[in-house]
Structures are given as C-alpha cells and as structure tokens.
Amino acid sequence: MTSIYRSLNLILLGPPGSGKGTQARVLAERYDVPHVSTGDMLRDEVRRGTALGRQAKEMMDRGELVPDHVVAGIVLRRLDQEDATRGVILDGYPRNVEQAGVLDGILAELGRTLERVALISVPDGEIVRRLGARRSCTACGRVYNLELSPPSKPGACDGCGGPLELRDDDREPVVRERLRQYREKTTPLVEFYRARGLLVEVDGAQKMEAVAEAIVEAIGAPVAG
Ligand code: AMP
Asked: Which atom of ligand 1 is nearest to the CA of 56?
C-alpha cells in the first residue's frame, strides 16, 4: 500500500494487552496526531472523582464495558478539540458495533473520515502473561512491562516520577472477563471494518518496534515534513 497521510483517523483494534496503548503512542508521534484512549480518559475521570468517573468505576473494576452513551460523550468532546482536526489514533474505541455507528456519526458531523483500522492479534495465553507483568503510572498513565519494557528505576515512572502499580483490572479474574467482553462484543468489529475495506491485520506477538513497523507498512507512511 502506498498511501501517505496529511490527516489520519486510525482505529487500533485488539484484545486488552495486545499493545494498543504502546503502539498508539508511537503512531501518534509518527503521524503527528493525538492518541485518544477512552480507557485513559475514563481512568482520569475516576481519579478526579467526577460524576462520570463515579458512574464508570464499578463497571471498570469488573472488566465490563461502560455504557455507550457515557463513552460517546467523552469521545465527541475530545475529537472536537483543535489538536484533533488532522486526525487521531483511537485506542479502546469503538468497542462494539453500536459504538462504531456512533463514531461514524461523530466523524461525519466533524467533516472527517475514518482512514484505516489496524487489528493487532495476540494469543490469549500471551495476554494473561503480559497483563500480569504490566505496571501503570498512577500519575500520568504511562505503561511499562516488567519483562519487555521495565522502567529505569524500579517502581517509578521514567516520564514523571509517579508511582507504578498493577492496575486492579489487570488482575487475572478481571483480565478473563475483559477478554470475554472483547471476544463477545468487540470482535464483530473485525468483519464490520473488513467489509468496508478498512482493515489491516498485524501480528502483535512480535517485538514492539516490529509491530509499529508492520502497522506503518500496512497503512502507509505519513507525509514528510
Ligand atoms: P482499556 O484501558 O481500554 O483496557 O479500558 C479499561 C476499561 O475502561 C474497560 O475494561 C472498560 O470498562 C472501560 N472502557 C474503555 N473504553 C471503553 C469503551 N469504548 N466502551 C466502554 N467501556 C470502555
């Protein structure tokens, strides 16, 4: 594929622990568009104790999806911001076919189009192992893996120095529920976007750098300069 992008609205699809967040950060820098993670935005609402955060917390703790209308509101607000006019890397949204329909509506209203959907595939066993080794900064949300990408100082974020923790929903029983939700609700999106000719698929079991290269190769390079 030889496409180059001046603007890019890209969805990263994949199970929890497939590396969507890490890849989204790399691609956001490469294509110079913001990384928009509904999980990060919801965790921020929970941290700040907002009404929305209080509403979402219980479902997040159980590994269930937060209601579509709640997430739609924060996505619309974020995509309507100035820095998102050239596109976004969407991580964790949409999560089901209804949300995909809502996203089409939001993009149409803002006069934008969805360029690509990249599916990052990783086997289940690998996911449970990866999420157990994942640590997240409680201050800025940056994610580490104790085996693959450890922080330089144990227990502290390289970026902001904040404390690193195992997220409650990265504990095994909740991971199993998140995987179940993914299989039941999110995997129908694979065929949904394939049928529209937007889907590219990459092997997420490779090294982080190789996954990023595979995505860039599959979707096309950004415009230079
Ligand atoms: P994530 O960081 O993407 O794994 O999301 C963590 C949790 O936030 C999920 O298990 C859900 O409870 C909630 N969440 C994140 N994104 C969505 C979404 N698009 N729709 C519903 N719930 C979401």
From this structure: 12
Are 180 and 98 spatial neighbours (Cβ–Cβ below 8 Å)? no
Identify whether 6 is a catalytic site residue: no
DSSP string, 25-60: HHHHHHHT--EEEHHHHHHHHHHHT-HHHHHHHHHH
Query: Taking the model in full, what pTM does it have?
Result: 0.91
Which has the closest alpha carbon to 99: 7, 14, 185, 182?
185
Closest-CA residue, ligand 1 atom 11, reads 65
pLDDT digits (tens, 9 = 90+) for 155-196: 999 999 999 999 889 998 999 999 999 999 999 999 999 999
Instruction: Considering the candidates 43, 78, 130, 178, report the single residue annotated as catalytic.
Output: 178
Residue 108, pLDDT score:
96
Choose which residue among 25, 55, 66, 90 to substitute to test ligand 1 binding: the one with the highest number of ligand atoms within 8 A of its C-beta.
66
Domains, the chain, ordered by start:
8-123+182-219 (3.40.50.300)
Q: What's residue 3's pLDDT? A: 52
* 134 labelled catalytic: yes
Percentages of the chain per state (helix, strand, coil), in multiples of 5: 50, 15, 35
Q: Which residues of the chain have pLDDT under 50?
A: 1-2, 225
What pLDDT shows up at residue 1?
Answer: 42
